Amino acid sequence: MEEGNYSSELERMIAEQLKERGINDERLIDAFLANPRHLFVPKDQKHRAYADRPLPIGEGQTISQPYIVALMSDLLDVNPDDGILEIGTGSGYQTAMLATLGDIVYTVEKKGKLQERAKKIHRNLGLENIKYRTGDGTKGWKEQAPFEKIIGTGSVPGVPDSLINQLKDRGRLVIPAGSRRQQRIVLVVKEGERIIKEKKSYCSFLPLVGEEGWSK
Ligand code: SAH
Description:
Bound molecules: S-adenosyl-L-homocysteine
Largest sheet: 7 strands, mixed
Number of strands: 9
Number of helices: 6
Oligomer: single chain
Distance between the termini: 39 Å
CATH superfamily of the domain at 64-203: Vaccinia Virus protein VP39
Strand content: 25-35%
């Protein structure tokens, strides 16, 4: 497909999948325009890059549905001076949105091959405010903590304590928590000693496998 076709597909995706479902934040919409999804999917998926669903990216993993990426970004409420921790780089699609919205993104991915691919895509897009680490992210990234915002893009049985501990005061954490098959997106807000947890939309994410995630 030609570049021109992608741009009309991208615009349609934004209108039908995001705006019609209540995503209207201008900075967020601009981030979706700046980071076209077809750049993040493998060759054999390009023809459906703008489909309303997750898509396989290799290594048994997927790129998230655009609406879910938008919803989680919206819940995080990213400010231009925020430092953000992301667990599960995957294709690097959510990472790119956060890097466009915030000041710096620290992203941790278990699978080195996926992270390498994401890194190249980010470089081609000119995104230079991303730091990468390969390994188990369920324990966070202690050396860089605390963070204004933390996002988990894979599921956990319960919100990891390490992530809550690495959140700044007034910080926000968004992660899908629940069973293997179905979760709720949980928003955690830290206010001094108070930890406020709110359960949001139902969803179905691949697991984060690690010390404070799933055991396998
Ligand atoms: N937001 C990503 C979706 C990633 S899917 C996108 O839109 O492309 C979840 C990712 O978490 C997978 O790439 C998987 O390899 C990774 N992952 C699983 N367990 C992990 C762990 N313990 N630490 C870091 N990453 C992990």
